[in-house]
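Revision sheet: structure tokens.
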Amino acid sequence: MNSTGVESFEPSRLILARDRAGLTQTVLGELVGVSARTIKGYEAGSIAPSHQTLRDLARVLEYPEAFFLAAAIEALPLEAASFRALSKASAKIRNKAVASGTFAVSLLYPFLSERFDLPAVNVPDLREETPEGAAEALRSHWGLGQRPIPHAVSLLESRGVRVFSLSEDCDAIDAFSIWRDGVPFVFLNTRKTAERSIFDTAHELGHLVLHRHGVPQGHDAENQADRFASHFLLPESAIRADAPTVATVATVAAMKKRWRASTAAIGRRLHDLGRMTDYHYTQFNKYLSQRGRRIEPAPISRETSVVLRKALGELANEGLDAKSIAKALNLPLAELRALTFGLKSIEGGSNQHPSRKTVPPLRLV
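Predicted:
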């Protein structure tokens, strides 16, 4: 490495910061005042930036200088993440999402796991099952029976899934999930409707149990995860028993309070189970389309991470606020907020939270 450069400069962190910013090597070089070839050299580790160039990189990318001088970070493999709506998400957006996920997996999660006894992982491998069979098997394994799930995010967290939020600049991605060193992670888009986010949570759970040892991409994998989510959130026998005599938008919307799924998802489940005729299902969908799919009848409250709310609350009581945590991780405060559902919402506010018994108490180590 060039002896005139900053000796402790870490190339892997520059790559991650550039991916998060959505910049090419050429554009970053222009903004910093060096060539694309020089940026390539920095990222390859063949040369190091000068102290002035490091300051310029930190300014342009909006990361503290200390971020680029800390230990190397192994980026999450793009091909191992389950992405929804791939047709809408460009390579740049996927790279931004994976870089953000890398910060959660490699920085924030270790920070929390060193300080708390987090729930143990209890997510079985159900790849030999059909999506419908996997949903039933998992409900049985987790002792859920046929009852509704009052809080999907906290259910996953209580079984060891680490749930984080996606930053708003990754709006084209609904959600994604990944296994890392035997630990499952789910990332949720907070700009979708609350109902859509719950379905995305179950969809990603489907990827975790069905595609743990494969690359969960493609239409077949997405279809399997959708079928799993529908059966997991809306179990057949219970939905048959709860189905209205006449399934209309109003009667289906009335089921939402109990089942916490979108009107469209419940309507499709009723149709699949033969409790809504083809004619009524067509009229049902016409009404929802005219109304706008993003506008839910009888909207429900949004779910956020209970583990993060509890952990950050405990750390705040110990005098470690969000700014202090961001500084300890060498991350911008905005990056920390992007991963933790905005911080303010999980430290209190009007969001719907489950009872304290839903997720085991976190013990400060």
